[in-house]
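Quick illustration, no need to memorize.
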Amino acid sequence: MILVLLLAVHTHYSDSAAIVNGRYKPMEPALGEVPFQVSLSMRINGSHYPFCGGSLVHPRWVLTAAHCLEQDGEPFPPHMMYATVGTININGKGGQRIKVETFIMNRKYLESDSGYDIGVVKLSANAKLGRNVKLIKLHVNNKEPLIGSTAYLAGFGIINGE
C-alpha cells in the first residue's frame, strides 16, 4: 500500500537530514487519493521489482530522484524499467504499467558529492488520465510564502525492512 506521510517528517536520520517541526503520521490512502503517485519497477526474468517512486507531471513524464535511476554511478537500463500509475498497491495490481522509454538525470548529480538529486523519466506511451491517475499540481507562484504550510509526502515506504 502507498503510505502518505505528513511532511515535516521526523526520521531516523541525522539531525541535518531532519525536517523542522515535523512528525511521522503514516496513513493508508484510498484509491484515487494520491493519483499522481508512480511506482518505478525493474522487470527481471518476467517479474517486476519495485525500487522507487515518482510523481506524474505530464501524461508521459515522471519526476523522480536521480538516485532512483542509477547504481554506483551506472545508469539503469531503461528497456528493463516500467512505471505503474493508478494504484495504491506496490505490486501494481489494478494500475497501468507503462514501459520506460528513457530518462534524464541532472548532469551535476554524478559529478557532485551531494545535491542535484533529480531526474525525469519519459514513458513509452501517455498514461491514461482519469479518476485514479492525475498530474501532480506543482507550486508555480514563487512569491507565495510557504513557511508554516502543511506539506505531504507520498510514497510506497519501506517494505519488509528494505
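The two ends are 15 Å apart (CA to CA).
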